[in-house]
Amino acid sequence: MTIPWHMDNTEFFAGLPGEKEEFLRVAERMEPHKHEMIFFEEDAGDACYYIQAGLRKRNEMFGLAEIIEARSRKANAQALTDCTLYKMNKHAFEKFLDARPLVTKRVVQVLGRRLRYLGEQIEGLMSSDVRGRLIKLLVHLAHEKLPNERSWTLPVKIPVKLTQEQMASMTGSCQQTISKLLGDLQEEGHISVCHRELTIVNPLLLLHEVER
């Protein structure tokens, strides 16, 4: 069984240590607290952000599409945990890219991967039932702690504690359905829930449940 391409945990600045050092030196350091808003839908897309710790995935850059096109935000961004970000405004980022063609190439690669992922997500919404969408969500939330192929077969706790209502919203369902499906997955031995912590027993095996 293979690991899905879009769950690769590659650092945005992988292979570019000098560029990363310079970005962190120039960018503004931010430390939002849990539930704090980073930006709102329709805000000006005038900055990009590098995640050093917290949020969905460490070492990831977000806000790229809007800053490149100078368009307003298409969604809200909120810290689900305390986190550390580095923010760079549009003018500074454009100067940064002009002097570093390898980072420009990386931006194009990342945006291309995200466009491909979006297409697959839309396809998944059309072809997967709610159980399948929930499984994909759980594995995606856990994948930050899955650094190599061996770790994908070991138990892993989901680092972000979402409510059932939030899970329902993210999967196009309702809280009652999510509650039942989580119960089913627990009875089947795919997950365990203890003290509000959810553990996926075998992430790769669970993910392949929806790919049969």
Report on this structure.
By secondary structure, the protein is α+β, with helices and mostly antiparallel strands. The chain has two domains: 5-124, Jelly Rolls (Sandwich), CATH 2.60.120.10; 128-210, Orthogonal Bundle (Arc Repressor Mutant, subunit A), CATH 1.10.10.10. Helix content is 43%, strand content 16%. It has eight helices and nine strands. The strands form three sheets. It has a four-stranded antiparallel β-sheet with strand order 1-6-3-4. The protein has a three-stranded antiparallel β-sheet with strand order 7-9-8. Strand 8 (191-194) and strand 9 form a beta hairpin. The protein is elongated, with a radius of gyration of 18 Å. It starts with 16 loop residues before the first helix and ends in a 5-residue tail after the last helix.
Which terms summarize this structure?
single chain, 212 residues, alpha+beta, Jelly Rolls, Arc Repressor Mutant, subunit A, 2 domains, 4-stranded antiparallel beta sheet, 3-stranded antiparallel beta sheet, 8 helices, 9 strands, 16% strand, elongated, disordered N terminus
How do you describe this structure in short?
By secondary structure, the chain is α+β, with helices and mostly antiparallel strands. The protein has helices spanning 17-26, 64-69, 90-98, 101-127, 130-142, 164-171, 175-187, 203-207, and strands spanning 28-30, 37-39, 47-53, 61-62, 77-78, 84-89, 156-157, 191-194, 197-200.
